[in-house]
Amino acid sequence: MRKAQPLAGILAALLVTTGTPSTPVRGRQTGEIATVSSLQFHSDFWMNLHHVLYAAAWSNRPQAGTLRALAGALPAPLDPPFTDEERSTWRAAVEYYDRELAGRDLLFGRGMMSVKDALVAGDLSRDAIGPDLQRILESTAPIYRRYFWPTHDRANRQWTNATVEQVKMVGPDLISRLEKFYGVGWFPEPVRVDVVWVGNRQGAYTTDGPPPHVTISSGDPDNSGWTGLEIVFHEVSHVLVLPLQNELETAIGPQARTHGVLWHVIQFYVTGSAVQQTLKARSIDYVPYMYSTGLFDRAWSRYRAAVEANWGPYVQGTVTRAEAIAGTVRDLRR
Question: Which of 78, 92, 99, 130 is least surrounded by CB atoms within 10 angstroms?
Protein backbone atom coordinates (compact mmCIF):
# COMPACT_ATOMS: atom_id res chain seq x y z
CA MET A 1 0.00 0.00 0.00
CA ARG A 2 1.07 3.58 -0.47
CA LYS A 3 0.19 7.12 0.37
CA ALA A 4 -0.68 9.07 -2.76
CA GLN A 5 1.02 12.39 -3.47
CA PRO A 6 0.85 14.76 -6.45
CA LEU A 7 2.42 13.15 -9.52
CA ALA A 8 4.44 16.20 -10.59
CA GLY A 9 6.17 16.44 -7.23
CA ILE A 10 6.95 12.74 -7.14
CA LEU A 11 8.50 12.63 -10.60
CA ALA A 12 10.51 15.74 -9.81
CA ALA A 13 11.80 14.04 -6.67
CA LEU A 14 13.28 11.26 -8.77
CA LEU A 15 15.94 13.74 -9.82
CA VAL A 16 17.18 14.37 -6.28
CA THR A 17 18.69 12.21 -3.61
CA THR A 18 16.47 10.31 -1.22
CA GLY A 19 19.13 9.51 1.35
CA THR A 20 19.12 10.51 4.98
CA PRO A 21 18.96 14.25 5.72
CA SER A 22 22.21 16.17 6.01
CA THR A 23 20.95 18.49 8.75
CA PRO A 24 21.92 17.69 12.36
CA VAL A 25 19.43 15.42 14.08
CA ARG A 26 18.86 14.36 17.63
CA GLY A 27 19.31 10.82 18.88
CA ARG A 28 20.25 9.16 15.59
CA GLN A 29 20.24 5.37 15.88
CA THR A 30 20.19 4.42 12.21
CA GLY A 31 22.03 1.69 10.38
CA GLU A 32 22.37 1.60 6.61
CA ILE A 33 22.93 -2.00 5.57
CA ALA A 34 23.38 -1.89 1.81
CA THR A 35 22.50 -0.05 -1.37
CA VAL A 36 21.84 -2.04 -4.52
CA SER A 37 19.96 -1.13 -7.72
CA SER A 38 19.04 2.25 -6.17
CA LEU A 39 17.45 0.54 -3.16
CA GLN A 40 18.98 1.73 0.13
CA PHE A 41 18.18 -0.69 2.96
CA HIS A 42 18.21 0.46 6.60
CA SER A 43 17.62 -1.12 9.99
CA ASP A 44 16.76 1.93 12.07
CA PHE A 45 16.45 1.87 15.86
CA TRP A 46 13.67 4.45 16.22
CA MET A 47 11.60 3.06 13.35
CA ASN A 48 11.79 -0.40 14.85
CA LEU A 49 10.92 0.76 18.37
CA HIS A 50 7.93 2.70 17.04
CA HIS A 51 6.59 -0.28 15.10
CA VAL A 52 7.16 -2.72 17.96
CA LEU A 53 5.20 -0.56 20.40
CA TYR A 54 2.45 -0.11 17.79
CA ALA A 55 2.22 -3.88 17.22
CA ALA A 56 2.43 -4.62 20.96
CA ALA A 57 -0.57 -2.36 21.51
CA TRP A 58 -2.50 -4.22 18.82
CA SER A 59 -1.56 -7.61 20.26
CA ASN A 60 -3.76 -6.83 23.27
CA ARG A 61 -6.81 -5.93 21.17
CA PRO A 62 -9.66 -8.36 20.31
CA GLN A 63 -9.10 -7.68 16.59
CA ALA A 64 -5.45 -8.84 16.74
CA GLY A 65 -4.70 -11.33 13.99
CA THR A 66 -7.85 -10.49 12.01
CA LEU A 67 -8.35 -8.46 8.85
CA ARG A 68 -9.49 -5.58 11.06
CA ALA A 69 -6.07 -5.28 12.67
CA LEU A 70 -3.84 -2.45 11.53
CA ALA A 71 -0.61 -4.00 12.83
CA GLY A 72 1.12 -7.20 11.89
CA ALA A 73 1.30 -10.04 14.39
CA LEU A 74 4.35 -10.01 16.64
CA PRO A 75 6.83 -12.56 15.20
CA ALA A 76 7.73 -13.62 18.75
CA PRO A 77 6.48 -12.83 22.27
CA LEU A 78 7.82 -9.78 24.08
CA ASP A 79 8.33 -11.34 27.50
CA PRO A 80 11.92 -10.78 28.71
CA PRO A 81 12.94 -10.75 32.39
CA PHE A 82 12.05 -7.11 32.99
CA THR A 83 12.75 -5.49 36.31
CA ASP A 84 9.65 -4.09 37.99
CA GLU A 85 10.59 -0.59 36.90
CA GLU A 86 11.24 -1.66 33.32
CA ARG A 87 7.96 -3.57 33.17
CA SER A 88 6.07 -0.52 34.42
CA THR A 89 7.76 1.75 31.88
CA TRP A 90 7.19 -0.65 28.98
CA ARG A 91 3.55 -1.24 29.95
CA ALA A 92 2.93 2.50 30.13
CA ALA A 93 4.40 2.92 26.64
CA VAL A 94 2.22 0.16 25.16
CA GLU A 95 -0.84 1.67 26.85
CA TYR A 96 0.04 5.07 25.40
CA TYR A 97 0.29 3.60 21.92
CA ASP A 98 -2.98 1.75 22.41
CA ARG A 99 -4.69 4.92 23.53
CA GLU A 100 -3.13 7.49 21.19
CA LEU A 101 -1.62 5.85 18.09
CA ALA A 102 -2.77 2.28 17.47
CA GLY A 103 -6.14 3.43 16.17
CA ARG A 104 -4.40 5.25 13.31
CA ASP A 105 -3.27 3.43 10.20
CA LEU A 106 0.52 3.61 9.82
CA LEU A 107 0.10 4.79 6.23
CA PHE A 108 -3.14 6.76 6.11
CA GLY A 109 -3.64 7.71 9.77
CA ARG A 110 -3.65 11.34 10.83
CA GLY A 111 -0.11 12.54 11.44
CA MET A 112 1.46 9.09 11.16
CA MET A 113 3.46 9.91 8.04
CA SER A 114 4.97 12.94 9.80
CA VAL A 115 5.83 10.78 12.82
CA LYS A 116 7.60 8.34 10.52
CA ASP A 117 9.54 11.11 8.80
CA ALA A 118 10.72 12.46 12.17
CA LEU A 119 11.84 9.00 13.27
CA VAL A 120 13.74 8.43 10.02
CA ALA A 121 15.48 11.75 10.61
CA GLY A 122 16.22 10.69 14.20
CA ASP A 123 14.70 13.97 15.41
CA LEU A 124 12.40 13.31 18.36
CA SER A 125 12.04 17.02 19.03
CA ARG A 126 9.89 17.65 15.96
CA ASP A 127 6.35 18.89 16.44
CA ALA A 128 5.05 15.74 14.74
CA ILE A 129 6.38 13.70 17.68
CA GLY A 130 5.30 16.00 20.47
CA PRO A 131 6.46 15.95 24.10
CA ASP A 132 4.39 12.95 25.19
CA LEU A 133 5.50 10.60 22.42
CA GLN A 134 9.07 11.86 22.77
CA ARG A 135 9.01 11.00 26.48
CA ILE A 136 7.59 7.53 25.72
CA LEU A 137 10.22 6.76 23.09
CA GLU A 138 13.14 8.06 25.13
CA SER A 139 12.04 6.21 28.27
CA THR A 140 11.62 2.88 26.46
CA ALA A 141 14.74 3.20 24.29
CA PRO A 142 17.15 1.75 26.91
CA ILE A 143 14.74 -1.12 27.57
CA TYR A 144 14.30 -1.88 23.87
CA ARG A 145 18.03 -1.66 23.27
CA ARG A 146 18.77 -4.01 26.16
CA TYR A 147 16.19 -6.75 25.55
CA PHE A 148 14.99 -6.61 21.95
CA TRP A 149 17.04 -4.51 19.56
CA PRO A 150 20.02 -6.87 19.07
CA THR A 151 17.69 -9.70 18.02
CA HIS A 152 15.46 -7.51 15.87
CA ASP A 153 18.38 -5.77 14.18
CA ARG A 154 20.01 -9.13 13.48
CA ALA A 155 16.77 -10.44 11.92
CA ASN A 156 16.48 -7.29 9.80
CA ARG A 157 20.06 -7.62 8.58
CA GLN A 158 19.75 -11.30 7.80
CA TRP A 159 16.58 -10.67 5.80
CA THR A 160 18.17 -7.72 4.03
CA ASN A 161 21.39 -9.56 3.18
CA ALA A 162 19.39 -12.40 1.63
CA THR A 163 17.23 -9.95 -0.32
CA VAL A 164 20.25 -7.97 -1.51
CA GLU A 165 21.76 -11.16 -2.94
CA GLN A 166 18.52 -11.78 -4.83
CA VAL A 167 18.55 -8.22 -6.18
CA LYS A 168 22.14 -8.64 -7.31
CA MET A 169 21.15 -11.83 -9.10
CA VAL A 170 18.05 -10.64 -10.95
CA GLY A 171 17.83 -6.88 -10.41
CA PRO A 172 18.99 -5.60 -13.82
CA ASP A 173 16.67 -7.92 -15.74
CA LEU A 174 13.74 -7.28 -13.40
CA ILE A 175 14.21 -3.51 -13.49
CA SER A 176 14.33 -3.58 -17.28
CA ARG A 177 10.98 -5.38 -17.37
CA LEU A 178 9.42 -2.96 -14.88
CA GLU A 179 10.62 0.04 -16.88
CA LYS A 180 9.08 -1.48 -20.00
CA PHE A 181 5.78 -2.42 -18.35
CA TYR A 182 5.27 0.89 -16.54
CA GLY A 183 6.89 3.14 -19.13
CA VAL A 184 8.88 4.94 -16.42
CA GLY A 185 12.63 5.00 -15.88
CA TRP A 186 14.17 3.51 -12.74
CA PHE A 187 15.18 5.70 -9.80
CA PRO A 188 18.36 7.71 -10.46
CA GLU A 189 18.97 8.12 -6.70
CA PRO A 190 18.54 5.60 -3.86
CA VAL A 191 15.06 4.96 -2.50
CA ARG A 192 15.13 4.38 1.25
CA VAL A 193 13.81 0.99 2.38
CA ASP A 194 13.38 0.69 6.16
CA VAL A 195 13.37 -2.89 7.35
CA VAL A 196 11.45 -3.33 10.61
CA TRP A 197 10.95 -6.46 12.69
CA VAL A 198 7.17 -6.01 12.68
CA GLY A 199 5.09 -3.65 10.56
CA ASN A 200 1.54 -3.16 9.42
CA ARG A 201 -0.88 -6.01 8.74
CA GLN A 202 -0.03 -6.02 5.03
CA GLY A 203 3.66 -6.47 5.82
CA ALA A 204 4.84 -3.38 3.94
CA TYR A 205 3.77 0.13 3.00
CA THR A 206 5.11 3.01 0.94
CA THR A 207 4.83 6.78 1.00
CA ASP A 208 5.37 8.20 -2.46
CA GLY A 209 7.03 11.29 -1.06
CA PRO A 210 8.84 13.10 -2.35
CA PRO A 211 11.08 11.35 -1.60
CA PRO A 212 9.66 7.81 -1.85
CA HIS A 213 10.07 5.68 1.27
CA VAL A 214 9.36 1.98 1.78
CA THR A 215 8.80 0.25 5.13
CA ILE A 216 8.82 -3.57 5.10
CA SER A 217 8.68 -6.19 7.85
CA SER A 218 11.44 -8.78 8.08
CA GLY A 219 9.31 -10.83 10.46
CA ASP A 220 6.28 -11.19 8.20
CA PRO A 221 6.22 -14.79 6.89
CA ASP A 222 4.79 -13.60 3.56
CA ASN A 223 7.95 -11.55 2.98
CA SER A 224 10.30 -14.52 2.80
CA GLY A 225 12.19 -15.97 -0.14
CA TRP A 226 11.45 -14.72 -3.63
CA THR A 227 8.12 -13.35 -2.41
CA GLY A 228 10.05 -10.88 -0.27
CA LEU A 229 11.84 -9.72 -3.40
CA GLU A 230 8.50 -9.21 -5.15
CA ILE A 231 7.16 -7.19 -2.23
CA VAL A 232 10.19 -4.88 -2.29
CA PHE A 233 9.73 -4.22 -5.99
CA HIS A 234 5.97 -3.99 -5.60
CA GLU A 235 6.39 -1.26 -3.03
CA VAL A 236 8.70 0.86 -5.19
CA SER A 237 6.33 0.22 -8.10
CA HIS A 238 3.85 2.43 -6.26
CA VAL A 239 5.79 5.30 -7.79
CA LEU A 240 6.24 3.68 -11.20
CA VAL A 241 2.51 2.93 -11.55
CA LEU A 242 1.37 6.55 -11.21
CA PRO A 243 1.17 7.37 -14.96
CA LEU A 244 -0.66 4.09 -15.62
CA GLN A 245 -3.02 4.83 -12.74
CA ASN A 246 -3.85 8.24 -14.19
CA GLU A 247 -4.44 6.79 -17.65
CA LEU A 248 -6.70 4.09 -16.23
CA GLU A 249 -8.78 6.52 -14.18
CA THR A 250 -9.17 8.84 -17.17
CA ALA A 251 -10.34 5.95 -19.33
CA ILE A 252 -12.84 4.74 -16.72
CA GLY A 253 -14.25 8.24 -16.37
CA PRO A 254 -17.03 9.00 -13.89
CA GLN A 255 -16.93 5.46 -12.50
CA ALA A 256 -13.26 5.74 -11.50
CA ARG A 257 -14.11 6.21 -7.83
CA THR A 258 -16.20 3.02 -7.87
CA HIS A 259 -13.16 1.12 -9.10
CA GLY A 260 -10.66 3.02 -6.98
CA VAL A 261 -8.63 -0.08 -6.07
CA LEU A 262 -8.30 -1.42 -9.63
CA TRP A 263 -4.98 0.28 -10.32
CA HIS A 264 -3.52 -1.50 -7.30
CA VAL A 265 -4.78 -4.87 -8.52
CA ILE A 266 -3.12 -4.21 -11.88
CA GLN A 267 0.08 -3.12 -10.13
CA PHE A 268 0.19 -6.39 -8.18
CA TYR A 269 -0.39 -8.32 -11.39
CA VAL A 270 2.18 -6.44 -13.48
CA THR A 271 4.99 -6.44 -10.91
CA GLY A 272 4.30 -10.06 -9.96
CA SER A 273 4.43 -11.01 -13.64
CA ALA A 274 7.74 -9.18 -14.06
CA VAL A 275 9.23 -11.15 -11.17
CA GLN A 276 7.77 -14.40 -12.50
CA GLN A 277 9.18 -13.81 -15.99
CA THR A 278 12.58 -12.82 -14.62
CA LEU A 279 12.85 -15.97 -12.51
CA LYS A 280 11.48 -18.20 -15.26
CA ALA A 281 14.35 -17.04 -17.49
CA ARG A 282 16.61 -18.58 -14.83
CA SER A 283 14.58 -21.82 -14.67
CA ILE A 284 13.06 -20.83 -11.32
CA ASP A 285 9.34 -21.53 -10.89
CA TYR A 286 7.60 -18.72 -9.04
CA VAL A 287 3.97 -18.02 -8.17
CA PRO A 288 3.25 -14.28 -7.76
CA TYR A 289 2.13 -12.97 -4.38
CA MET A 290 -1.49 -12.31 -5.30
CA TYR A 291 -1.91 -15.98 -6.26
CA SER A 292 0.32 -17.67 -3.66
CA THR A 293 -1.40 -15.85 -0.77
CA GLY A 294 -4.91 -16.07 -2.23
CA LEU A 295 -5.16 -12.28 -2.26
CA PHE A 296 -6.63 -12.14 -5.77
CA ASP A 297 -9.64 -14.31 -4.93
CA ARG A 298 -9.93 -13.16 -1.33
CA ALA A 299 -10.01 -9.44 -1.97
CA TRP A 300 -10.38 -8.74 -5.70
CA SER A 301 -12.20 -11.64 -7.30
CA ARG A 302 -14.50 -9.23 -9.18
CA TYR A 303 -11.51 -7.98 -11.18
CA ARG A 304 -9.71 -11.24 -11.81
CA ALA A 305 -11.25 -12.04 -15.21
CA ALA A 306 -10.76 -8.52 -16.58
CA VAL A 307 -7.19 -8.20 -15.32
CA GLU A 308 -6.06 -11.61 -16.55
CA ALA A 309 -7.77 -11.19 -19.93
CA ASN A 310 -6.21 -7.80 -20.65
CA TRP A 311 -3.01 -7.50 -18.65
CA GLY A 312 -1.86 -11.05 -19.28
CA PRO A 313 -1.42 -10.28 -23.00
CA TYR A 314 0.13 -6.94 -22.07
CA VAL A 315 2.95 -8.43 -20.01
CA GLN A 316 3.45 -11.00 -22.79
CA GLY A 317 3.91 -8.15 -25.27
CA THR A 318 0.98 -8.99 -27.55
CA VAL A 319 -1.10 -5.86 -26.82
CA THR A 320 -0.23 -2.26 -26.00
CA ARG A 321 -0.93 -0.58 -22.69
CA ALA A 322 -3.64 1.53 -24.32
CA GLU A 323 -5.28 -1.67 -25.60
CA ALA A 324 -5.02 -3.29 -22.16
CA ILE A 325 -6.66 -0.26 -20.54
CA ALA A 326 -9.40 -0.08 -23.19
CA GLY A 327 -10.11 -3.78 -22.81
CA THR A 328 -10.28 -3.47 -19.04
CA VAL A 329 -12.75 -0.58 -19.26
CA ARG A 330 -14.83 -2.50 -21.79
CA ASP A 331 -14.99 -5.55 -19.52
CA LEU A 332 -15.93 -3.38 -16.52
CA ARG A 333 -18.83 -1.85 -18.43
CA ARG A 334 -20.10 -5.29 -19.33
Answer: 99
